[in-house]
C-alpha cells in the first residue's frame, strides 16, 4: 500500500495525542502509526522537521526516528548513488547541529540525539568516519553533550552486535580515546565550574560517564588515576549516589587484585572516615547509610583476604566494627574461610617449634608467627562479638509482636536493623514474612556454623553458659522463651561441626543444668527447637550413651503432642537409628513406652516411632528379636483384625504402613538385598533362633491378614498398593519374621493379579524373582508363576491399543520378564512354546508404541533380551533360534522407530538395541537389512 | 579431582554463597577430611503459587493459584563426576533410610535419580550451566513434570489419569518434607 506522507503538523498532532491521550486504544494506534512512519523513506526528511518543533515530545520522536533509520535503514541512504557522500555528511551534520541547538534544552532529546549519532558512528566506521571520538571532541569541546555522548558510546558499543574488522576498528577507536576521555573526566571532577548547580550536574554526569567506561572495561592504570577524585566526592550528599555506583563497579573489577593494597588503603580510609561513621547512625537520610553499606559489603566480599591479612590494623578493626552493625552474612563466611586458609594466615607449627626453637610457618604471605598469633586472638574477639549479635538477630520477637507481623510492618524494624539483610523485603502477606524470618534464621545458622570454625570450644562454652544463665536469671518472666530458644537454635546449628568426642560442654547441656530444667509444658517453639536439637546431636549421643535415656525422657512425652510430634518423632528416629547398639538393653522399656504412648500418636509420627523401635530390635541378637517384634506387630495386627470393610479402609492402609515401617527398621543399616541361592537359604534358616511356634504363628497370621485384604480390597488400587509395598519389603528383609514365605506369596500374587489387574502385583512378583530367582528349588513354582502372570497379562492387554491404555501393567510386566532374564533365564524357555511366542509377539508389538512408559519398558526389555550373557551352549542356541525367527521383525520395528515413527528422544536407546543385534548376528543382520531395504524400495516404487 | 573440576566447584560454591535463590540451600558434605566438593546436599523449595507482581493489591482473602509443592523443601544429593564440568552432576532424591520410596514424581526414577534434560550429557547439558540454574531447573521440574520422559510408573500414571489425586499426593508429600 502506498504511504501518503503526512504533513509535519499532522505528525505533531499525533505525537501530542500519543502522550496525552488516556485512551489506550488510541495510544496503541498512534504508536503503530509512528512505527509505520519510521519505515518510510520520507522519515529521513521528517526527522529534522520534528526536531525543529517546539514540543519536546516531537523533538524526541524526531531524534528517535534518526536513530531507528540509521540502525535499521542505513542502506536507505544509498538510494541515489550520486548523492551518497552528500547524504551521509548531511546526516552527521544534522545530528551534530541538533545536539548543539538542544544542548541547553531537554536532556532526553540530547541523549537520544547522542544515541543516534553513536548509531551513525558505528555504521560509518571505518570507511566513512574513522575517528569519531576525536572528531566529537573537536566539535563539542566540552560540556554536557560531550559527556552524554561519551557515556552512551561504550554502552552502545557493548550492546551492538559488531563483527569482524568493524568490531576491531571500533574497539581500537575506544582504546585510543581512553587517555583523552579520562583526562577530561579528571579535570571536570577536580575543578569547580563556578556555578554550584551546573557544577553538580556536570559532576554527576562525569561519574555516570566514568561508570559506563568501567563497565566497558578500561585498563586499570587509567582508572586508578581517577580514584582519589571520585572518593573525594563520596562525602558530598548530592554526589554520594553516583560515587557509590562508580566505586562499587570499580572494586568489583576482577583485575583489581594487582592493585589491591593501594585500593584497599584508599577505600578503607573512605569508608571509616568520621563522616562515614556518622552516617551509620544518621536517621535523617537513610540513603547515605544504605550507600555506605552497599560499598562496605562489596568491599568485604572482594577483599576478605586482605582483611584477614591486615586484621590487626586500626582501620580494618573499625571497618569490622561497622560490619558487625551491618551484618552481611556472606562477608563473615568469606572472612572465616580466609582466616582458616594457611596460605593466607600462616599456621604456627607447634611440633616443629619444639624442635627448632622457633615458629615454622607454612605460608606465602609475609605475616610473622607473632602476628598470626595475634590475628587469631583478635579474630576470636571479633567472631565472639559476631555470634552474640547473630543470636540476638534470630530471636523471635515477643508473642504479641509476632502476632502483629501479620501486618507485615514490624519485620523491617525488627529483623532488618541492618540495611543489608540477605533477603529481599517484598512484603506480601503474613505467611511470607514469617517464612522469610525462618529462612533468615537458617542463613544465620549457616553463619554461626562457619564462626564455629574460628571459635570452636569458646563458642560452645559461650552458648551453654548463656543457656544456663538464661534459665537461671532471677525474676525471669515465666512466659519468656525467645532468648533461650535462640541460644538452643545456635547450638543446633553447629551440630554438624562439633566433635563427637566433646565432653565438657555438651554433658552440661544435656544434663541437669539445661535439659533438666527445660519446661515440659507450653512454649511450643522453644520445645520444638529443644527436641530437634537432640536429634541433631544423635551421633554425639552414640559416643555418650549415658545421656541417651534422659534425652529420650524429654522426647517421648512430646510424641503425643500434635504441635511437637513431628520434631519429637524425627529426633526419636535419629537417636534410635544412631544409638541402636546402646539401646538394646532398654528395648523392653521402649516397647512398654510404645504400648502406653502409641495410641496417642498421630499416624505419620507413629510410623517413625515404629521404625525407630524396629531399628533397635534389629540390633538385638536374633534369639531376642522376636519377642519385642511380636508385641509391636500384635498391636497392628489386632487393629487390622478388628477393622472390617468398608469403614475401615483408611485404618487398613495406616496399619499396612506401620508394618512396612517395621520391616524397614529391622533391616540392618548397611545391608544389601539378600539373594537366596541354595546355600544362603540354609544359612538363613540356621540364623533363625526364634521360637518356631511363635515365628510360624506370626507368619500364618500375616498370611491370613494379607490374603484377606487382597481378597476383600482387590478392586481398591490404593489399598493394594500399600499391601504390595509391605509384601515386597517383607521379603527383602534379612530375618524372615515379617516375610510371607515363597510357597504362599507366589500363589497369592497369581490369584490376586487374576482378580484385578493391578500392576503392583507384578512389581511384587519382580521382587520375588529377585530374591528367589537364583534358587533352583523354586524353579517350577517360578515358571508357573510366570506362566500365570503372562496369561493374565496377555488376556487383559490384547493389542497395541490396550498396551497404550495400560502402560503401567506393560511396564511392570516387562520388569518381571527382565528379572527372569537376569535371575533364571532358562525358565523362560521351559514355558509352553505358544506362550513363549506370545511373549515375543507382545515384546515386538511394544517396540511400536507411542505411549512413553510402555515404549520405554519394551525397548529396555528388548535390549536386555538381546544382550543376555550366556555361557551354556544349549542356551545360546535357544536364544539364537528365537532371534532367527523374530530378528527380522525386531529390526523392522527398530528401523521404523529410528526412521521417525517414534519420538526423537528414543533414538539413542533404539540405536543401542540395534547395535546389539548387528554386533551379535552379523550375517543375519545383513540379510535382514537387505530384505527390509528392498521392501522399502518396492513400497517407494509402488507409491511413485 | 582434576584441577578444573576443583576450581570450578570452588567458584560455584563462592557464587552460590554470594547469591542464591530464595529458600534454596546447597552445601558440600563435610567429612573428616574437610569438605567433599564432589558431594553436595541441596534443598529445593516447592514453588509458590503464581507470583503476581501486584501482591499488594490482592485482597488477603483472594485465593490465587497455588502449587501442591509449596511449603515443602525437598532434600536431594548432587554428585559431581571427576570430569565435571564436561559431564553433568547427578541428582538424587535423598533417601532418608533404607527402602524409603523415591520422591513421588513422574521424572524421578525408583532409585531416586532425577531425570532432567539439562542434567543429561547427551541432551541439554552444557558446561556453562551453573549450580543455581540446575537447582532452579529441578524446582521447575517439580511442578511441571515432563510426561514425555517417565521415570517411575506410580507418579506417572496418577499424573496422567487423575490430576486431583496426584495433586493431593504431592501436597501430602510436601507436608512430610517441611521447610
From TrEMBL, chain A:
It is found in: Nucleus. One of its GO terms (biological process) is protein import into nucleus. GO terms for cellular component: cytoplasm; nucleus. Coiled coil: none annotated. Its main location: nucleus. Keywords: Nucleus, Protein transport, Repeat, Transport. It holds the Pfam family TPR_TNPO3_IPO13_3rd. Residues 107-245 form the Exportin-1/Importin-beta-like domain. Belongs to the importin beta family. This is Importin-13. It comes from Dentiscutata erythropus.
From TrEMBL, chain B:
CDD domains: UBCc_UBE2I. Pfam families: UQ_con. One of its GO terms (cellular component) is nucleus. Residues 4-179 form the UBC core domain. GO terms for biological process: protein sumoylation. It comes from the Eukaryota. It is found in: Nucleus. Belongs to the ubiquitin-conjugating enzyme family. PANTHER family: UBIQUITIN-CONJUGATING ENZYME E2. This is SUMO-conjugating enzyme UBC9.
Amino acid at each position: 500500500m502506498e504511504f501518503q506522507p503526512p504533513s509535519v503538523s499532522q505528525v505533531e498532532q499525533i505525537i501530542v495525542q500519543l502522550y496525552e491521550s488516556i485512551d489506550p486504544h488510541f495510544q496503541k494506534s498512534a504508536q503503530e502509526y509512528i512505527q509505520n512512519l519510521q519505515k518510510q523513506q520520507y522519515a529521513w526528511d521528517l526527522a529534522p522537521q520534528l526536531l525543529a518543533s517546539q514540543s519536546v515530545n516531537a523533538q524526541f520522536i524526531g531524534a528517535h526516528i534518526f536513530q531507528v533509520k540509521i540502525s535499521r535503514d542505513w542502506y536507505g541512504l544509498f538510494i541515489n548513488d550520486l548523492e551518497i557522500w552528500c547524504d551521509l555528511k548531511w546526516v552527521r551534520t544534522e545530528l551534530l547541529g541538533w545536539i548543539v541547538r538542544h544542548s541547553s534544552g531537554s536532556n532526553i532529546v540530547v541523549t537520544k540525539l547522542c544515541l543516534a549519532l553513536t548509531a551513525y558512528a558505528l555504521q560509518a566506521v571505518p570507511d566513512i568516519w574513522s575517528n569519531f571520538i576525536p572528531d566529537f571532541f573537536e566539535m563539542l569541546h566540552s560540556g554536557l553533550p560531550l559527556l552524554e555522548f561519551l557515556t552512551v558510546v561504550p554502552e552502545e558499543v557493548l550492546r551492538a552486535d559488531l563483527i569482524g574488522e568493524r568490531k576491531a576498528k571500533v574497539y581500537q577507536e575506544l582504546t585510543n580515546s581512553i587517555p583523552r576521555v579520562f583526562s577530561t573526566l579528571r579535570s571536570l571532577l577536580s575543578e569547580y565550574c563556578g556555578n554550584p548547580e551546573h557544577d553538580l550536574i556536570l559532576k554527576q554526569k562525569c561519574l555516570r560517564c566514568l561508570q559506563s567506561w568501567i563497565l566497558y572495561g578500561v585498563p586499570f592504570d587509567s582508572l586508578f588515576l581517577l580514584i582519589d577524585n571520585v572518593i573525594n566526592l563520596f562525602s558530598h550528599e548530592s554526589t554520594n549516589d553516583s560515587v557509590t555506583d562508580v566505586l562499587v563497579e570499580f572494586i568489583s573489577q576482577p583485575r583489581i587484585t594487582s592493585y589491591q593494597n593501594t585500593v584497599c588503603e584508599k577505600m578503607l580510609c573512605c569508608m571509616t572516615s568520621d563522616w562515614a561513621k556518622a552516617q551509620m547512625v544518621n536517621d535523617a537520610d537513610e540513603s547515605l547509610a544504605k550507600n555506605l553499606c552497599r560499598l562496605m559489603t562489596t568491599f568485604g566480599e572482594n577483599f576478605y583476604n586482605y582483611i584477614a591479612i591486615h586484621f590487626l590494623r586500626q582501620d580494618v578493626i573499625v571497618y569490622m566494627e561497622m560490619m558487625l552493625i551491618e551484618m552481611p552474612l556472606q562477608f563473615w563466611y568469606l572472612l572465616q574461610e580466609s582466616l582458616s586458609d594457611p596460605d593466607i594466615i600462616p599456621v604456627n607449627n607447634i611440633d616443629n617449634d619444639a624442635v627448632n626453637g622457633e615458629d615454622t610457618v607454612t605460608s606465602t604471605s609475609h605475616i610473622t608467627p607473632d602476628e598470626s598469633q595475634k590475628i587469631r586472638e583478635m579474630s576470636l574477639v571479633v567472631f565472639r562479638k559476631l555470634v552474640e549479635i547473630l543470636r540476638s538477630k534470630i530471636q523471635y520477637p515477643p508473642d504479641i509482636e509476632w502476632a502483629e507481623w501479620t501486618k507485615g510492618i514490624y519485620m523491617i524494624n525488627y529483623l532488618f536493623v541492618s540495611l543489608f539483610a540477605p533477603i529481599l523485603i517484598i512484603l506480601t502477606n503474613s505467611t511470607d514474612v514469617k517464612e522469610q524470618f525462618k529462612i533468615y534464621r537458617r542463613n544465620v545458622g549457616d553463619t554461626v556454623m562457619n564462626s564455629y570454625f574460628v571459635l570452636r570450644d569458646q563458642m560452645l562454652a559461650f552458648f551453654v553458659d548463656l543457656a544456663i544463665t538464661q534459665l537461671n536469671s532471677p525474676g525471669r518472666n515465666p512466659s519468656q522463651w525467645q532468648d533461650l530458644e535462640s541460644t538452643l537454635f545456635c547450638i543446633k546449628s553447629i551440630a554438624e561441626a562439633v566433635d563427637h568426642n566433646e565432653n565438657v560442654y555438651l554433658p552440661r547441656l544435656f544434663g541437669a543444668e539445661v535439659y533438666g530444667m527445660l519446661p515440659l509444658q507450653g512454649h511450643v517453639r522453644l520445645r520444638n527447637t529443644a527436641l530437634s536439637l537432640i536429634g541433631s546431636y544423635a551421633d554425639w549421643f552414640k559416643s555418650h550413651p549415658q545421656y541417651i535415656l534422659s534425652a529420650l525422657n524429654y522426647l517421648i512425652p512430646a510424641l503425643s503432642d500434635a504441635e511437637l510430634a513431628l520434631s519429637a518423632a524425627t529426633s526419636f528416629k535419629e537417636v534410635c537409628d544412631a544409638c541402636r547398639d546402646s539401646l538394646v538393653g532398654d528395648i523392653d522399656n521402649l516397647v512398654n513406652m510404645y504400648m502406653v504412648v502409641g495410641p496417642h500418636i498421630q499416624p505419620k509420627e507413629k510410623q517413625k516411632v515404629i521404625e525407630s523401635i524396629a531399628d533397635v530390635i534389629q540390633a538385638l541378637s536374633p534369639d531376642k528379636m522376636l519377642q519385642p517384634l511380636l508385641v509391636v506387630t500384635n498391636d497392628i495386627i489386632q487393629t487390622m483384625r478388628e477393622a472390617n470393610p468398608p469403614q475401615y479402609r483408611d485404618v487398613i492402609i495406616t496399619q499396612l504402613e506401620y508394618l512396612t515401617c517395621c520391616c524397614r527398621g529391622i533391616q540392618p543399616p548397611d545391608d544389601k538385598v539378600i539373594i537366596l541361592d541354595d546355600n544362603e537359604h540354609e544359612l538363613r534358616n540356621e540364623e533363625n533362633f526364634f521360637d518356631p511356634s511363635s515365628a510360624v504363628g506370626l507368619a500364618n497370621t500375616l498370611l491370613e491378614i494379607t490374603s484377606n485384604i487382597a481378597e476383600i480390597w482387590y478392586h481398591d488400587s490404593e489399598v493394594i498398593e500399600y499391601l504390595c509395598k509391605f509384601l515386597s519389603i517383607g521379603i527383602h528383609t534379612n530375618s524372615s519374621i515379617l516375610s510371607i514365605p515363597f510357597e504362599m506369596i507366589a500363589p497369592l500374587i497369581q490369584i490376586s493379579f487374576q482378580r484385578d489387574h493391578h500392576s503392583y502385583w507384578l512389581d511384587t512378583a519382580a521382587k520375588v524373582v529377585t530374591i528367589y530367582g537364583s534358587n533352583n528349588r523354586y524353579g517350577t513354582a517360578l515358571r508357573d508363576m510366570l506362566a500365570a502372570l503372562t496369561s493374565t497379562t496377555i488376556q487383559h492387554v490384547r493389542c497395541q491399543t490396550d498396551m497404550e491404555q495400560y502402560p503401567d501393567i506393560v511396564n511392570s510386566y516387562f520388569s518381571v520378564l527382565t528379572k527372569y532374564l537376569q535371575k533364571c533365564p532358562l525358565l523362560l524357555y521351559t514355558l509352553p512354546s505358544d506362550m513363549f511366542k506370545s511373549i515375543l509377539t507382545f515384546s515386538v508389538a511394544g517396540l511400536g508404541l507411542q505411549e512413553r512408559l510402555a515404549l520405554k519398558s519394551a525397548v529396555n526389555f528388548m535390549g536386555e533380551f538381546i544382550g543376555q550373557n550366556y555361557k551354556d551352549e544349549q542356551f545360546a542356541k535357544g536364544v539364537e533360534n528365537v532371534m532367527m525367527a523374530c530378528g527380522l521383525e525386531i529390526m523392522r520395528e527398530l528401523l521404523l522407530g529410528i526412521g521417525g515413527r517414534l519420538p526423537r528422544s528414543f533414538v539413542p536407546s533404539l540405536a543401542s538395541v540395534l547395535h546389539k543385534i548387528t554386533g551379535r548376528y552379523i550375517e543375519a543382520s545383513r540379510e535382514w537389512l537387505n530384505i527390509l531395504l528392498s521392501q522399502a524400495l518396492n513400497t517407494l516404487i509402488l507409491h511413485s | 579431582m582434576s584441577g578444573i573440576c576443583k576450581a570450578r566447584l570452588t567458584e560455584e560454591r563462592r557464587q552460590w554463597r554470594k547469591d542464591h535463590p530464595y529458600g534454596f540451600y546447597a552445601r558440600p558434605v563435610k567429612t573428616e577430611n574437610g569438605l567433599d566438593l564432589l558431594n553436595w546436599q541441596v534443598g529445593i523449595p516447592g514453588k509458590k503459587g503464581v507470583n503476581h507482581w501486584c501482591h499488594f493489591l490482592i485482597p488477603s482473602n483472594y485465593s490465587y493459584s497455588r502449587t501442591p509443592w509449596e511449603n515443602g523443601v525437598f532434600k536431594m544429593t548432587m554428585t559431581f563426576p571427576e570430569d565435571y564440568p564436561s559431564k553433568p552432576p547427578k541428582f538424587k532424591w535423598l533417601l532418608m533410610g533404607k527402602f524409603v520410596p523415591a520422591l513421588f514424581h513422574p521424572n524421578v526414577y525408583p532409585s531416586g535419580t532425577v531425570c532432567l534434560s539439562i542434567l543429561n550429557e547427551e541432551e541439554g547439558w552444557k558446561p556453562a550451566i551453573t549450580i543455581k540454574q540446575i537447582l532452579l531447573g529441578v524446582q521447575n521440574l517439580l511442578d511441571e513434570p515432563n510426561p514425555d520422559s517417565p521415570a517411575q510408573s506410580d507418579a506417572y500414571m496418577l499424573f496422567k489419569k487423575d490430576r486431583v489425586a496426584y495433586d493431593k499426593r504431592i501436597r501430602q508429600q510436601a507436608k512430610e518434607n517441611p521447610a
